[in-house]
């Protein structure tokens, strides 16, 4: 799994950083997403998928996902 | 176009204020958009399109076709008074102070406030009012410290907040209170201009003070102060009242720490404290293929939308604290989505289990039907919760 961010979409709500704090943080300046681990280990994939799903501005894209594992 | 008479502004049923009025369920099923008359001394009686479907509410909040316009009284510095780039500019000055990490870092402080409140309830003994001693003090203390507002001033600003959020109080009275709030905050802002404190207000003055007028700064301070204490206090009061009606669900919150996160989301979904979101059409827009004309007022019902969630699950009317977290709209959606939601979640997750663990046999001293619910306020809650244990 590889994480890519649509930076201009982020509205700094922080759901990702609340759901997967080892993978996402937020900038102290304006609260926009900071990726701590762009290729997270398997045991965090579930959390990361949830974070992407709950992002209100669809700013988190996940690559290398097999559709069978989605949702 | 369907005209369906008047409905109370928040659309809460008189018999059970946790439930939407039947008209909202009808509106949800109706393919046509409904226009209703909404009576409110604060906003003046007005006609509005009422949106009750989850998908409709979400899409109009996200796509920029609606704006705040004149839907709420204007206040400089209050994010809810701005749209578009002006809104983004102001919001970006604050988002860095309300990150998930900062909310987590506040946990020890929140735990301290919760313990102190529980001690006060215990000391007062049976008959204690949880709203006065628990629901209000916790978020008030937290936001005061976070912002840099003296906690000793709480009585005044709590009273003014009640007025500011009451749809039943006239616009003139609202204006008078708003002027008092502004004068109060202006003084604090002046102090931060002299010597910026180590808190959110101090930070905004330090980092952005040269781009903001004193009036805007005071508006930002008051917005954060009001939103930061009254919303959480109301949510706590409503959630506690609801759980006391459902002892089996209360037991889950009390006994199973692994259920806390999901339970809080479920309580937020059902209570929907910010019951409606008022807007105005910025131009002619379409919802599905039905038109809303430029300038028309729109009322989006979070209460109704949260029980629909775009699915046809009939069960969504039921409180089920074991339900996996749902994508509710309790914190709004789109550019105005709640700035303080991570903080609110941490406070609720700490406070609710702690209350029921300190008082495992908690119960009301009055029948449920006698509780006074604030159904016509911008934020839904209970006026007082006399309890025993
Ligand atoms: C359970 C508690 C809370 C609930 C239910 C809640 C709900 C909401 C909702 C629904 C909105 C969007 C309003 C709209 O779109 O018209 C909102 C906006 C906002 N909330 Fe909250 N809120 C809560 C707690 C807080 C806290 C603790 C703070 C601050 C410390 C806060 C600060 C704000 C601000 C500043 C806005 C305006 C954001 C903008 O316009 O960009 N809220 N809140």
Automatic annotation (TrEMBL), chain A:
<keyword id="KW-0003">3Fe-4S</keyword>
<keyword id="KW-0408">Iron</keyword>
<keyword id="KW-0479">Metal-binding</keyword>
<protein>
    <recommendedName>
        <fullName>Ferredoxin</fullName>
    </recommendedName>
</protein>
<dbReference type="GO" id="GO:0009055">
    <property type="term" value="F:electron transfer activity"/>
</dbReference>
<dbReference type="Pfam" id="PF13370">
    <property type="entry name" value="Fer4_13"/>
</dbReference>
<dbReference type="InterPro" id="IPR001080">
    <property type="entry name" value="3Fe4S_ferredoxin"/>
</dbReference>
<keyword id="KW-0813">Transport</keyword>
<keyword id="KW-0411">Iron-sulfur</keyword>
<comment type="function">
    <text>Ferredoxins are iron-sulfur proteins that transfer electrons in a wide variety of metabolic reactions.</text>
</comment>
<dbReference type="InterPro" id="IPR051269">
    <property type="entry name" value="Fe-S_cluster_ET"/>
</dbReference>
<keyword id="KW-0249">Electron transport</keyword>
<dbReference type="GO" id="GO:0005506">
    <property type="term" value="F:iron ion binding"/>
</dbReference>
<dbReference type="GO" id="GO:0051538">
    <property type="term" value="F:3 iron, 4 sulfur cluster binding"/>
</dbReference>
UniProtKB/TrEMBL annotation, chain B:
<dbReference type="GO" id="GO:0004497">
    <property type="term" value="F:monooxygenase activity"/>
</dbReference>
<keyword id="KW-0479">Metal-binding</keyword>
<keyword id="KW-0503">Monooxygenase</keyword>
<dbReference type="GO" id="GO:0020037">
    <property type="term" value="F:heme binding"/>
</dbReference>
<dbReference type="GO" id="GO:0005506">
    <property type="term" value="F:iron ion binding"/>
</dbReference>
<dbReference type="Pfam" id="PF00067">
    <property type="entry name" value="p450"/>
</dbReference>
<protein>
    <submittedName>
        <fullName>Cytochrome P450</fullName>
    </submittedName>
</protein>
<dbReference type="InterPro" id="IPR017972">
    <property type="entry name" value="Cyt_P450_CS"/>
</dbReference>
<keyword id="KW-0560">Oxidoreductase</keyword>
<dbReference type="InterPro" id="IPR001128">
    <property type="entry name" value="Cyt_P450"/>
</dbReference>
<keyword id="KW-0349">Heme</keyword>
<keyword id="KW-0408">Iron</keyword>
<comment type="similarity">
    <text>Belongs to the cytochrome P450 family.</text>
</comment>
<dbReference type="InterPro" id="IPR036396">
    <property type="entry name" value="Cyt_P450_sf"/>
</dbReference>
<dbReference type="InterPro" id="IPR002397">
    <property type="entry name" value="Cyt_P450_B"/>
</dbReference>
<dbReference type="GO" id="GO:0016705">
    <property type="term" value="F:oxidoreductase activity, acting on paired donors, with incorporation or reduction of molecular oxygen"/>
</dbReference>
């Amino acid at each position: 799994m590889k994480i890519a961010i649509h930076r201009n979409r982020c509205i700094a709500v922080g759901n990702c950083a609340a759901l997967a704090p080892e993978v996402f943080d937020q900038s102290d300046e304006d609260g926009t997403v900071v990726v701590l681990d762009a290729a997270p280990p398997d045991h965090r994939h579930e959390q990361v998928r949830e974070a992407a799903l709950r992002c209100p501005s669809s700013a988190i894209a996940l690559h290398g996902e097999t559709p069978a594992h989605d949702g | 176009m369907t005209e369906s008479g008047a409905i109370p502004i928040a659309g809460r049923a008189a018999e059970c204020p946790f439930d939407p009025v039947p008209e909202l369920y009808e509106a949800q099923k109706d393919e046509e958009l409904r226009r209703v008359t909404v009576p409110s001394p604060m906003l003046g009686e007005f006609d509005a399109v009422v949106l009750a479907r989850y998908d409709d509410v979400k899409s109009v909040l996200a796509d920029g076709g609606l704006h705040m316009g004149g839907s709420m009284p204007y206040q400089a510095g209050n994010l809810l008074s701005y749209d578009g780039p002006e809104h983004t500019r102001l919001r970006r000055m604050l988002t860095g102070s309300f990150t998930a990490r900062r909310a987590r870092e506040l946990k020890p402080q929140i735990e301290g406030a919760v313990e102190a409140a529980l001690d006060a309830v215990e000391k007062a003994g049976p008959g204690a009012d949880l709203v006065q001693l628990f629901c209000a003090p916790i978020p008030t203390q937290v936001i005061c410290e976070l912002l840099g507002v003296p906690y000793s001033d709480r009585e005044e600003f709590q009273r003014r907040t009640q007025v500011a959020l009451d749809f039943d109080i006239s616009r003139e009275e609202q204006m008078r209170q708003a002027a008092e709030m502004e004068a109060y905050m202006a003084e604090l802002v002046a102090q931060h201009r002299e010597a910026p404190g180590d808190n959110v207000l101090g930070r905004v003055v330090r980092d952005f003070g040269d781009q903001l007028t004193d009036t805007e700064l005071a508006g930002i301070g008051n917005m954060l102060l009001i939103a930061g204490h009254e919303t959480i206090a109301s949510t706590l009061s409503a959630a506690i009242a609801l759980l006391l009606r459902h002892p089996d669900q209360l037991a889950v919150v009390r006994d199973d720490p692994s259920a806390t996160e999901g339970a809080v989301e479920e309580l937020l979904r059902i209570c929907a404290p910010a019951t409606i979101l008022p807007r105005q059409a910025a131009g002619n827009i379409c919802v599905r293929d039905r038109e809303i004309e430029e300038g028309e007022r729109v009322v989006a019902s979070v209460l109704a939308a949260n029980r629909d969630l775009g699915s046809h699950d009939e069960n969504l009317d039921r409180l089920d604290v074991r339900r996996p977290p749902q994508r509710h709209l309790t914190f709004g959606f789109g550019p105005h989505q709640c700035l303080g939601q991570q903080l609110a979640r941490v406070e609720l997750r700490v406070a609710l289990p702690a209350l029921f663990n300190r008082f495992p046999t908690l119960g009301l001293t009055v029948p449920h039907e006698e509780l006074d619910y604030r159904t016509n306020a911008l934020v839904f809650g209970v006026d007082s919760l006399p309890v025993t244990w």
